[in-house]
Structures are given as C-alpha cells and as structure tokens.
Amino acid sequence: MGRTSSILPVLMLVIASGCAARSGMGTAVVSQAGEVPCFGVESTVATRHGNPELQAISVTDQKGNAVWRFIFAPSAPGIPLAVGQCIQYGAKLPEMRVYVEPRQLEAGALYTVMVNASVDDPKEAIHLYSARFCVVRQPGAAVQVHQIESKEGKPQAAVCGVQQPPAASGGQ
C-alpha cells in the first residue's frame, strides 16, 4: 500500500504535464525485401522535416505473442530511419538488444508490427507506428508480404486467406 501511494503522485504529475498527450500512433509501412517483411514509417509533416530515430520494433502474432522484438541499448542512439527506408524482419543491427529472436512467419497468419521511432521535435505527437500484415505462400509462386489495410475501421484480411471473425450484428 505504501509503495502504491508513493507512485500515485508521480503518475499524476506525468499526466498533468501533458506527456500522455504528446504520444500518438501513426501507420507503419510494411513492404517486402526478398521473401521477408520490411518495416518503415509513414510520411508525415514531421518525418519530412527530419528522419525519425528508430528505437525498437516488435512483431506479434494474432494472439499477441512476440515473434520478433528488439530495442536499442539505452546508452546508444537509435538509428535514423528515413521515409522509404525499412528494416528487414530478423535484421541484426549494431547496438540492438534482441529480446525475442525472429521466428518463422506462418503463411496466412496475421501479424502486427509496432515501430518505435521519434523525431527531434517536441511538438510531434507520433512516436509509435503500427500496421498489420501477413505472408502468403502460393504453390509455385514466390512468398508475398501484404500489409492489411482497414476499410471503415475493419481490417481487410481476405488477401491473406484468413477469415475474419464475423462482426457483432447489433441485433440485426
């Protein structure tokens, strides 16, 4: 109880300072490099004025289990990640700390990537970029990586060969 009550004032100061208001979520860009996904950040006003500094990438499966995760050592700066550049799934970069080694991505499974990258602009609200994607393997064809776009707020995963659970009908 004493520990919780000592943390509460600090938490209230963080909230009151507006720190939470400066965090936001942007769209990660999922492309293909060879037969693996490659992750970058969307073009925004802030990223056009300076390259975001990559701090971490986390890839999870549909159940939320990590299939690849790394961060850069706190003592090391992240690496610049210009719009149009990407980091390949499973890449080994200097100064990175791997928390989950890359696992084999399953064909047709849905994945989520979170890219933590920030620009040197205190007014910029976006530090996390997120996207959903899948890998498709078709007989006699090369592996294809697909970013899952949303239509009217609903992910369109049919391209992955995955059936989305039906939406609640709301009494219809």
Features:
172 residues; mainly beta; ten-stranded mixed beta sheet; two-stranded antiparallel sheet; 3 helices; 14% helix; 39% strand; globular; disordered N terminus; disordered C terminus
How would you describe the overall organization of this protein?
This protein is mainly β. It has one domain. It is 14% helix and 39% strand. The N terminus and C terminus are likely disordered.
Number of strands: 12
Q: Report the biggest beta sheet as strand number plus sense, adding barrel if it closes.
A: 10 strands, mixed
Helix tally?
3
Structural class category:
mainly beta
- The SSE string, one letter per element, is HHEEHEEEEEEEEEE
Helical content, roughly? Answer: 10-25%
Report, as a whole number of angstroms, the end-to-end distance: 48 Å
